[in-house]
Amino acid sequence: MAGQVRHLFAVLLVYCDPASPAELWSTHLPALIEDYLHEEIQAHNQRSVAENRALDIIQDPTVVEENSRVYRRALYLTLQDVNSHLTSNGQSLLTYQESLPQFSAFGDVETVDDVADRNANQLIASETSYEADDMDRRAENLASLNADQRMVFDKGRTERIAAGSGIAAQLLTGGRTAHTTFRLPLDPDETSTCNIGVRSFEAALLKRTSLIVWDEAPMTHRFQYEAVDRTL
């Protein structure tokens, strides 16, 4: 159950842009950390029994001090799991360094294997975050580029492809609907802006974007363009 809560927590961060990630974290931390805390307590008790330290045996998880090694280790493992979910969605704990605890604060409980596992997980996520068919199409399209197109491609610029309808978005390689891409309001007016948080993944992607291709543009209301313009 705790693993599912951590996954949901990461999904909320990435796709829902909560107003206060720190408050969301602190409110639900007991549920987020529960399984790791029990595992660390069990490991601690086994060591205590082996070393004949009966007074160190923990009977009640609620009495574990937050600055104890047992609690901090469980908290570190919780962050590791949350970070793995964020990484698979193009983010990491560093995206929320002003709101969430960071790995740098857990040097006393972090091991060399922990760091190696985290780096390996990030590499695996990066290497597997593509579709083979899409890569084949990109390779074919790359071979058909003219000199000017090749020059733009080689500069590594980021483009966003948006469409007014779901069908058009499906037909465009890498396409998404304009409402999904820019978080447009359903009923825009002359003062509307996009629902994109400053620290969100969408905001970071738009900052790197040098070209926006908007299909079916003549059929789109000007309020939508203006909302995107204000957001940018």
What Rg, in angstroms, do the CA atoms define?
A: 23 Å
Helix percent reads: 55-70%
Order of helices and strands: HHHHHHEHEHHEH
* Distance between the amino and carboxyl termini: 40 Å
Structural class: mainly alpha
- Identify the overall geometry: elongated
Count the E strands: 3
Oligomeric form = single chain
Return the domain count. Answer: 2
Explain what this protein looks like in three dimensions.
The chain is built from ten helices and three strands. The chain folds into two domains: 2-128, no CATH class; 149-231, no CATH class. Strands 2-1-3 form a three-stranded parallel β-sheet. The mean pLDDT is 79. The longest helix has 30 residues, at 21-50. Helix content is 56%, strand content 6%. The protein has 232 residues and is mostly helical. Helix 7 (166-171) links the parallel strand 1 (158-163) and strand 2.
Keywords for this entry:
232 residues, three-stranded parallel sheet, mainly alpha, helicase, 10 helices, 2 domains, 6% strand, EC 5.6.2.3, hydrolase, single chain, DNA repair
List the helices and strands and how they pair.
Elements: H1 2-16, H2 21-50, H3 69-87, H4 112-128, H5 132-143, H6 147-154, E1 158-163, H7 166-171, E2 176-177, H8 178-182, H9 201-208, E3 209-214, H10 222-231
Parallel strand pairs: 1-2, 1-3
Helix pairs in contact: 1-2, 1-3, 2-3
GO molecular function: 5'-3' DNA helicase activity; ATP binding; hydrolase activity
Protein name: ATP-dependent DNA helicase
Keywords: ATP-binding, DNA damage, DNA recombination, DNA repair, Helicase, Hydrolase, Nucleotide-binding, Signal
